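ARCHIVE CARD
Drawer: 12
Card no.: 0347
Subject: one protein chain, sequence and derived structure
Cross-reference: see card 0346
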Amino acid sequence: MITLEKNKIIKSLQDLPEETTIEDAMERLYLLTKIEKGIKQADEGKCISHEDAKKKMKKWLK
């Protein structure tokens, strides 16, 4: 599981509008977690080329 640093979580929540919902906060934290996970995977070489991604998308969108 990817974890966010406490400071990143606090900063993200502080950046939300004053009038926000718990769901909005949860979505933002979930998005940040997914981004962190993607960066970690890319750093570890666990990614596919743009060309391979286009080929996969072409199959899915038929």
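Annotation on reverse: The chain has one domain: 6-60. Helices lie at 6-14, 22-43, 50-60.
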